[in-house]
């Protein structure tokens, strides 16, 4: 059986800057070998969903703005950098960058956490359209949507690391 230390070392960063999710998943007994993307995802998502609202809000707040200041400064996690680059967010025109900045600021002011979307398979136009639509959501609806996107990001990251079965 994989040790708690090794599990947290390997999967603690899957949920952005929130190793407590991996710790709780392991401690719950939900981690089973052989480790598969589906199995680890189920364990991590259960721990995430069982976290308090304040803890889940902390997970949301740990995510970077899309095409934001951390990206410009080169301070994204490796996973976030690859994901944003894959969607073309590292190649925005000045006008697109200005629009992302405007939406990031408006979204953050409205909801108190950054806009979160699983960018794999999307381009900057898809992301911008979703951003413009979701900034008008009600607080509760957007919190639920952002949490669902975190869960999707976790699955995509695990799919890149582990076999399906």
Describe this structure as you would to a colleague:
- This protein is mainly α and 165 residues long.
- It has a domain at 64-149: Oxo-4-hydroxy-4-carboxy-5-ureidoimidazoline decarboxylase (UraD-like), CATH 1.10.3330.
- The protein is 64% helix and 0% strand.
- It is built from nine helices and no strands.
- The chain has helices at 4-11, 19-27, 37-50, 53-61, 69-73, 78-86, 94-111, 124-134, 139-161.
- Helix 2 packs across helix 3 (37-50).
- The longest helix has 23 residues, at 139-161.
- The chain is globular and about 50 Å long.
- The model has no long low-confidence stretch (mean pLDDT 92).
Shape: globular
Q: Indicate the CATH architecture of the domain at 64-149.
A: Orthogonal Bundle
Distance between the termini: 17 Å
**Fraction of residues in β-strands:** under 5%
Number of strands: 0
How would you spell out the order of helices and strands? HHHHHHHHH
The name CATH uses for the topology of the domain at 64-149 is UraD-like
Would you identify the regions where 5 or more consecutive residues have pLDDT less than 50?
A: none
Total DSSP helices: 9
**CATH class identity of the domain at 64-149:** Mainly Alpha
Class by SSE composition: mainly alpha
Mean pLDDT: 92
* Rg, Å, rounded: 16 Å
Q: Main β-sheet: number of strands, strand sense, barrel status?
A: none
Helical percent range? 55-70%
CATH homologous superfamily descriptor of the domain at 64-149:
Oxo-4-hydroxy-4-carboxy-5-ureidoimidazoline decarboxylase
């Amino acid at each position: 059986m994989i040790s708690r230390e090794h599990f947290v070392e390997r999967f603690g960063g899957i949920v952005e800057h929130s190793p407590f999710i991996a710790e709780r998943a392991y401690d719950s007994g939900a981690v089973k070998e052989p480790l598969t993307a589906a199995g680890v995802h189920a364990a991590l998502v259960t721990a995430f969903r069982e976290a308090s609202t304040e803890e889940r809000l902390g997970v949301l707040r740990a995510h970077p703005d899309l095409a934001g200041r951390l990206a410009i400064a080169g301070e994204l996690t490796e996973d976030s950098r690859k994901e944003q680059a894959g969607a073309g967010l590292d190649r925005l025109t000045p006008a697109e960058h200005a629009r992302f900045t405007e939406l990031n600021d408006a979204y953050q002011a409205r909801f108190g956490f950054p806009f979160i979307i699983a960018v794999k398979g999307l381009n900057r136009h898809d992301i911008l359209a979703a951003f413009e639509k979701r900034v008008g959501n009600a607080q509760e609806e957007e919190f639920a949507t952002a949490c669902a996107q975190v869960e999707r990001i976790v699955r995509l990251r695990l799919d890149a690391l582990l076999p399906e079965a």
